[in-house]
Amino acid sequence: MVVCGLACWRCRWLLPLLLGLAIIMGIIALAGRGWLESESEPYVQQASLWESCTRGQEDLNWNCESLMDYGWGRAAAATYLVGFVILVICFALAVIAFSVEILRFNFVRGIGGLLFVVAAFQIIGLVIYPVKFTEEIPLMGDNMFSWAYGFGWASTVVVIGCAFFFCCLPNWEDEVLGNIKPTYYSSSPQRSQYLN
Hints:
Blueprint: E1 2-4, H1 14-31, E2 36-38, E3 45-47, E4 51-54, E5 63-66, H2 71-99, H3 105-136, E6 143-145, H4 147-168, H5 173-177, E7 183-185, H6 189-195
Helix pairs in contact: 1-2, 1-4, 2-3, 3-4
Keywords: Apoptosis, Cell adhesion, Cell junction, Cell membrane, Cytoplasm, Membrane, Transmembrane, Transmembrane helix
Pfam family, one: PMP22_Claudin
Membrane topology: Multi-pass membrane protein
């Protein structure tokens, strides 16, 4: 006898876990110094969300300039940071929502809506930064947007995926809560003779 059914209630922590992963990637993006780096040696330029650093080819010390002196730098940092704060709030709400025995699915859909807001804020910050950086900061040598900038985009992609899942989850409310009776398939000797 085989029991077929969707056992989603046991895997309900997958979505909050993914949000936690997005938070970790967001922390790496916020703290990382690899938003922009020199592509090859000599490494003469690197930048984070907060500052841009350069050095001469023979110099060992970095000379850093704050990007918060620029309006676009403050805008990029503020939009990405606001999105990150809302993401942390969504994570806390998701943990609360999935901890309660009686899951409120309208509450879950609201978390999905907030996650779309997070994605919008993060995308704005991630687009402002490279456009204005390349326009207003003199670049030295060959540069590339590097690993920390990539973590920012990875966090945003995970948030967008989770937003869709949180918004669509109420459509499978009965399956998630286990309200659907399982379907049993069995083969009986009387039935098998008719199949031959």
